[in-house]
Design goal:
Order of helices and strands: HHHHHHHHHHHHHHHHHHHHH
Mean pLDDT: 76
Strand content: under 5%
Largest sheet: none
Number of strands: 0
Low-confidence stretches: 410-425, 430-502, 505-513
Helix content: 55-70%
Shape: globular
Length: 513
């Protein structure tokens, strides 16, 4: 590492330590920190995000203390903070400019939440500041090459945990655990997102989080408009779609999809139960019923792992959306989601990828995939055969929950072909054949007609291997009955299916045309 960079990092760490101690001791004079870091930033064309964050945090705390936390000055402080961060990142990359804005969103959410808790309408100045923040993001997103820039950033932010403590110290940040500080500093993110990052946060991930928070904060301000439900849904969906198009960021889309798989949305604390249902509808419509230009196209040949991850999440959200619509007896919306699944390029590419991967574990038969649940079941079978399908355990647990599989924290990889009794149509949703104790349909067949090739060779297994496979079968299928081989699909191909008709709440969701 460059010695100059090392020296600046050491200086930052030491300054953070002294600031936290000074604040805890009751000091209100931070002029020495402001002076030193102001001069340091003046010597750099493009100051590191971490140094800018520390300097802006010190000036922010000093301004709050001098105003004696007067509510009328909070918006002015937030506006000054936005202007300071913009001025310090004039020559920064688009991603860095966006990530820099996290403290502004943190303060804006706090103002909006306090207004809500006080039963007051959000001030027009706050709405204007939120829109200004969105405009800053959109301007950065319009820079040429922005959409492909994230590949350049691999390293985690320096002193990230300590910087979060600096920002949240006036709300108990010094004594809290890091996870609790994250919830305070990123109030519109979720625990699931941080678990997926394993505590690491680079510029790309930070940008995704900031975009999600700005997105949710902007949507929240749409509530209370007094419009009819249908008008509200239409207008808010249009706003969401335009925002997603403007952001055109895969980190953002990845995190948004993951949040839609969680039990509640980040805004739940500010919304009534009826409002949260409306927000769910808006988000699901915006994500599933629109094909965005920055969605990955044909990614299988390029081996783009990020596109595969997005496709997996999109399919999981599709199944969650269909279940959500059926639970609300909104059958027309369920049909729209099912049609979107069948027509999606995401799904076509994912099936193509799974078909290629299936041959590696000698699964020669390709199932007839008509619904998200059918595809998820097949992907889980492939994963249990030893293929890496889901990039993280959190996503794998979501997949199992959606198809009714029990979630087991430690599961052995299956490197052997599991042969089970009777054939099955993956698209059956009522579980007529019963999801067994291990979670997979007890009548799932993993191999087709071509299994005859080399069967005799594969029948020669040791007693130890047979014992291991039998144990795994019992864990997965909950049955020790004799098993026979029947193909999933005799034509070894996929059927596209016709247009969806009315979807009843208890239909099997197969809906073949």
């Amino acid at each position: 590492m460059n010695p100059q960079i090392q020296n600046k990092e050491a200086m930052l760490k030491e300054s953070i330590k002294h600031f936290l101690t000074s604040y805890q001791s009751g000091s209100t004079d931070y002029s020495s920190f402001e002076s030193i870091f102001f001069r340091l930033i003046q010597t750099m064309l493009d100051p590191p995000l971490e140094i800018t964050w520390f300097y802006s945090a010190v000036t922010y705390h000093a301004a709050k203390l001098s105003s004696r936390n007067n509510p009328s000055t909070r918006v002015l402080i937030a506006k000054d903070l936005l202007n300071l961060l913009i001025s310090c990142s004039n020559l920064s990359s688009p991603l860095k400019k966006i990530g820099m804005l996290a403290p502004v969103v943190y303060e804006l959410y706090d103002i909006v939440r306090d207004s809500r808790n006080s039963g007051l309408c959000v001030d027009m100045e706050v709405e204007k500041l939120v829109e200004n923040t969105v405009s800053c993001v959109m301007m950065s997103a319009r820079v040429y090459g922005y959409a492909n820039e994230d590949a350049k950033f691999d390293s985690a932010l320096v002193c990230f945990e300590d910087l979060v403590r600096v920002w949240t110290i006036d709300r108990g940040g010094r004594g809290c655990k890091f996870g609790e500080n994250l919830r305070v500093f990123f109030p519109l993110s979720s625990d699931g997102i941080w678990k997926g990052l394993n505590g690491r946060c680079g510029i790309g991930e930070l940008v995704g989080i900031v975009l999600c928070e700005v997105f949710f904060l902007r949507l929240y301000l749409s509530f209370g408009s007094g419009m009819s439900t249908e008008d509200f849904l239409e207008r808010t969906k249009d706003q969401a779609v335009q925002t997603i198009k403007g952001f055109q960021n895969r980190y953002f889309l990845d995190m948004l999809l993951k949040m839609l798989l969680e039990p509640s949305l980040p805004l739940a604390a500010l919304l009534s139960s009826e409002e949260e249902i409306l927000l769910h509808k808006v988000l699901l419509d915006a994500v599933l019923l629109v094909e965005y230009s920055f969605y990955p196209g044909q990614w299988v040949q390029s081996c783009d792992s990020r596109s595969k991850k997005l496709a997996m999440l999109w399919v999981l959200v599709s199944e969650r959306a269909i279940q959500f619509a059926r639970d609300k007896i909104d059958l027309s919306r369920a049909s729209l989601y099912l049609n979107a699944f069948r027509e999606s390029q995401f799904v076509a590419e994912l099936i193509k990828w799974a078909s290629i991967e299936a041959t590696r574990v000698n699964q020669m038969t390709i199932p007839d995939v008509q619904t998200p649940k059918a595809l998820i079941k097949w992907l889980l079978v492939l994963e249990h055969q030893g293929l890496r399908v889901f990039e993280h355990k959190v996503v794998s647990r979501h997949a199992k929950a959606l198809v009714g599989m029990p979630i087991v924290e430690s599961e052995p990889p299956l490197n052997q072909n599991i042969l089970v009794r009777n054939g099955i149509d993956l698209n059956v949703d009522q579980e007529m054949d019963d999801l067994s104790n291990g979670g997979f349909p007890a009548t799932f067949c993993l191999m087709g007609k071509q299994i005859e090739m080399g069967r005799k060779r594969k029948e020669v297994v040791s007693v130890l291997q047979e014992s291991r496979i039998k144990q795994v079968k019992l864990e997965l299928f909950g049955s020790s009955d004799d098993e026979t081989i029947l193909p999933l699909s005799m034509d070894n191909g996929l059927q596209s299916g016709g247009a969806a008709e009315n979807v009843g709440p208890d239909d099997d969701m197969e809906l073949n045309g």
